[in-house]
Amino acid sequence: MRLFIGIGLSPECRRAIAGAVSPLRKKGVPVSWTPEDNLHMTLKFLGETPASRVNELAGLMAEAARGFLPFLLRVEDAGAFPTLRSPRVLWIGIREPLELVRKLHQNMENALSGAGFPRDERPFHPHVTVGRVRGRVAPGWGETFASAVSGVAFDTVFVASYRVYESRLSPLGAHYSVLREVPFGGEADRTEERGAEE
Ligand code: 3AM
User: What are phi and psi of 28, to 5 degrees?
Assistant: First the structure.
């Protein structure tokens, strides 16, 4: 299964993000926009992983999140990778609590790498991908995107858990499903308690 670990956003926040980018969508630029239901924040892409490791993964994530309490996530500002001047991935940023999210990411990397899941080589930039540029955009369009979205107040999101997602790719796009919800400060969901590799 193709897996990744991420943080879900509330329906209100997803709606606010979709609303903010909707005027840009209508302009017909060659961008593949993330469907509202798919908006999330990725912490780690795992790629092809045997289904038998999902419970182990959730257990390691629970261990990594043991000292964490739920927090309010502030989603704000916009940017692009690699740069706004040559945008490929369009994103909305995380304003707060940046240090906490980084710490969670670091704990998770430590726990997972101990079990043989390779660490990310790229530096971690917490973000919500809202679109991917698929062709040429006019010079300055990246800045247009950022200024259209910057300053919009998206809802704060109450975050009490993080998730293992499965991503299924098809010609119609990616479909994400939540396989495990791992709460902060406690144990992983009941499925994990069985601990057995099925
Ligand atoms: O949250 P975003 O959209 O930035 O880009 C993919 C997406 O991240 C990323 O994993 C998330 C869920 O699909 N992703 C996909 N393939 C990847 C790869 N080979 C990857 N990240 C790193 N390496």
Answer: 70, 25
Predicted pLDDT at 198: 33
Q: Whose CA is nearest to atom 20 of ligand 1?
A: 45
Decide whether any atom of ligand 1 lies within 6 Å of the 167 Cβ: yes
Query: Cβ(185)–Cβ(65) under 8 Å?
Result: yes
pLDDT at 155: 81
> Residue 106 has which token pair?
């670091």
Quick check: CB of 154 below 6 Å from ligand 1?
no
Predicted confidence (pLDDT) per residue in 85-102, tens digit: 999 999 999 988 999 999
List the chain residues with pLDDT less than 70. Answer: 186-198
Residue spans per domain, the chain: 2-190
Residue pair 22/33 in contact (Cβ under 8 Å)? The answer is no
Alpha carbon distance 69, 158 (integer Å): 11
Atom of ligand 1 nearest to the CA of 128: 1
> Would you call 150 helix, strand, or coil by DSSP?
coil
Q: 135: burial class by Cβ within 10 Å (0-12, 13-18, 19+)?
A: exposed
Is it true that domain 2-190 has CATH number 3.40.50.300?
Answer: no
